[in-house]
Amino acid sequence: MLAILFLLTWNSCEKDVILELADEEGRYIIVEANLTNDGDLQWIRLTQSSSYYDVNRGIGLKGASVIIEEEDDLFLFSEAVVDSVDGFYLQPQISKKLRETTYRLQITTEDQKTYTAQSTFRPVPELDSVTVQLNPFSELGIFEERVYDIFAHFRDLPDEGNFYLFNLYINNQLKTGRPNDKAPMSDINLEEYVSYAVLSVNERDVNPGDTLTLEIRSISRENFNFYSAFFFQTDLSGNPFAGAPPANIPTNLSQGARGFFQVSAVNKKTIIFERPRD
Fold first, then answer.
1. What is the tally of structural domains in the chain?
2. pTM of the complete model beyond 0.85
């Protein structure tokens, strides 16, 4: 009887929901600007927003002026086409000159619209070691395939309020390319020494003898919220009991631009993958 009553109540609550999906093509600019002190050439990509129904990659924004400055220096980014994809702006010198200070980004488009953001370069811990363990759910046979957890071991920086981002490379190829693939971490309530499973990899994606490189980046609290929002808006979006109602992903860019500007210190640790024993 209770089950029948539940079904009747559920059916009585049903109603048609009409989504008004606006055509956002060209209305916003999307900014990918994650600069690090690792490597030589740094890039920023600018694209135009597209329609909800457009499944193609965003159209690159051409002809913009892209400048990053700090108290003592200014860096001009040059427009370029990378692998036949436009909208890229490159700078070969800024990486080696990054230091603990605040950097300001200014983008001016051909129609003289200006967008700004700022980010502070912060230090990052050294990774003492990286280890691989079989995921506990794999040990129980819950997953159809083996899943391996990637553990980071490091000493946290002094004081609370530090935020980190983890990436995984397999044979020098970035495995965590999408924003919701990455692993943001807050050091609030962490022990002084951290041994934590930050990312996972399926057995089909890795073989014995492959190189696994774990990367840790320093990020701001706002950037931590940016990546956390991606996770709740994508990975948990199909779960009605998790996450918050859909909302715009946070940004530190002005004038309605989307995306994020972050300047980070980077450390990496590489190991040779061996399957852990059951």
1. 2
2. no
